[in-house]
Design brief:
By secondary structure, this protein is an alpha/beta fold. It contains 9 helices and 10 strands.
Length: 239
Amino acid sequence: MATVQTGAAADVKVLTAGAFKQVVVAVVPEFEKATGHKVVVDNDTVGGLTKRIEGGDTFDVVVLTPAAIDELTKKGKIVDGSKAVLARVGVGVMVKAGAPAPDISSVEAFKRALIAAKSVAYIDPASGGSSGIYVANLLEKLGIADQIKPKAKLKQGGYVADLIKAGEAELGIHQISEIVPVKEVTLVGPLPAEIQNYTTYAAGISAGTKESEAAKALIRVLSGPAAAAVLKEKGMDRP
């Protein structure tokens, strides 16, 4: 990472949606070393962060969905024109490490795998998690919601992988970036292309920041080549 000249050292507060936190944390040490700035990272769901910002939480950089960035920009919380699209992540299927991997290569194969599984875990849609809402709607569209509901194991946020590694569920569905870091589970693969759903993440700068140059420098790193390898490692890619 090239040294970034941004003036005096600053404290940069970053609010990030949970799925992108690991990317921020991975690039921060080099950024701090190159710039002298100190980065403080806090994470929550997109909905949680939006409410906090609307309620007056202070920050310098925020990473949310593009729609949430746009809405907060309209409300004067984020600098107009500061939005930078950073990454996207798809939904994947997991099993416990060492367990047989089901065929999910087509929509029909995916349906068969879900029906055959003794239990299926995903984020509780009621918690506001984007993957859980998508999965619940997908099961309805595929016509298998009634078959899956009796054996569904719903996670109230956090890692669905926790239920898989604990043996509480056989098959798990979650964003790929939330599967890859957990060594005790195996990513079977992404959902078939026809039913895949991507969540996109974008950064914005607080309208109230006193560290705009440092904030801009961090966003340049997150959207630049230094972060590209990290994104791939964490199960994400560029939009």
